[in-house]
Amino acid sequence: MNQIVIIIVSAGAKDGLCKKLDEYAGFNWQKSNQLALIELPRGIKKAATYDFIDTEIKRLFPLQHSKTTFDLWVPDDVFINTALLDKKGKYSISPLVSTKNLRKSDSLNKKLKASRLDWLSRATSVLKRYNYDTINEEQVEHWLDQFKILNAYQIGKNLIGLFIIPETNEIFSFFQEKLGKNNRILAFHEDKSLGKSGAFISTLLSKIDDNSLRKAHEAIDDNIASQPIFIVEDGLFSGTETCSILESLQNKKVPPKVPPLKNIENINSKQITLHFAAVCDLGLRNVMSYLSANNLTNIKIEEGYINFNVSNNTPEIDPYIFQELHNWKPEQKQKAQELCKDIGKQLWRLYISQKFGNDFDQNKWPTARIELCSLGKDGIGLAFAFTHSVPKATLPIFWARGEVFLNVNGHNKKIYWEPLFKKIS
To answer: What is the predicted pLDDT for the residue at 424?
Structure first.
């Protein structure tokens, strides 16, 4: 059974302790669903503290309240009805030093580290989900050393704290419920150019319903089968890859990303739904436009397990990681965004030129397009990976490498940038 830590403080002590938690647990600790702080109202009687704390926890954790235990951390100058809390069995009590000492000493930091709730432990617990590299605390600190050189350690720390890697079992449960057991065909794209994604999806789907599982092009080509076809992919970000796959199926792309259909007209008549684990609204809009322009209105797209909104149906892109919902301080957000753009622009240029080698076409990749991708493909600006791959919509500073030139304290400095994810698909 999972346990959530709740720190109980007296009236007026919340703001000071929040600043310490920002430092020790990471600036987004309040969104972690692992840690919370409850401030008792001024003048509350000890006998009434149980009802107040219980009500607040129900409000903060409505879904977890009935199936989770809570460890209450209580400074020794805060007086609550511990007897009643203990009796209910849902709450355990852990004493702390006084509120004043919590703010001045290192005891809170040590307590958080012991409970694996400090920022580094929490970040590493997410990053270690990546299957194709071993990312431990030492590697995280090594990556952050680059930000120290740039006098931007806190920025790097914040970026790490915002990184998302959904667990495979979460995605499995989502698709298991979404795809159901009705009369349908489950399908996946099989091609080497899709890297680890095709293998990941096919393995996942085989566990859901191996009997109805087929390769997408074969399912669409089948003139006999009439069931709806659910084609499953891992991510829809800019929409470029999905559109390329659709082009390939219609034999419009050379070389094709997936095998072309033998019966191309079937793609217009079959009942097809595209399912993704992660969906970005920019990619959704681009693919929907493609479907409409190519008379493929029979193809539908479902929302993902994780959904990123960066465009709100406007031409302007609001990079996800720098949005207001992530609680950046205004001055720090601007510095972080400028730094990531400066490094990312140089890294993307290196990546794209190495990817195409002698076939690199500067006309297809003008400076403006490269700058657009400085925060990830089309400026989407994610801090996101699957357990099997890192999408190019994620900030290049996480996955790209190479020499970059930066202005540090008025001096040009050359740095060989090392990525956090050294092995990507």
So the answer is: 74
One fold for 3-117 and 168-304: yes
Mean residue pLDDT across the chain? 91
Phi, psi of 291 (to 5 degrees): -60, -40
Phi, psi of 238 (to 5 degrees): -85, -20
Which whole number is the average pLDDT over 412-418? 93
Domain 3-117 -> CATH class: alpha beta
Does domain 168-304 correspond to CATH entry 3.30.40? no
For the entire predicted model, the pTM comes to: 0.90
Which pLDDT does position 191 carry in this prediction? 65
Q: Both tokens of residue 33?
A: 């669903």
Residues 6+ apart with CB under 8 A from 45: none
Domain boundaries, the chain: 3-117, 129-165+321-425, 168-304
Lowest mean pLDDT among 51-65, 226-240, 245-259, 373-387: 51-65
Kindly give, in sequence order, each residue whose CB lies less than 8 Å from that of residue 165, ignoring residues fewer than 6 positions away. Answer: 126, 127, 129, 130, 384, 385, 386, 387
For 164, 237, 238, 350, 370, the CA distances from 364, given in Å and listed in that order, are 31, 20, 17, 15, 10
- Say how far residue 180 (Cα) sits from the centre of its chain: 25
pLDDT at 1: 46
The two structure tokens encoding residue 18: 């929040």
Report the alpha-carbon distance of residue 165 to residue 163 in Å, rounded: 7
Helix, coil or strand: residue 77: coil
Give the strand pairing for 69-75 and 3-9.
parallel
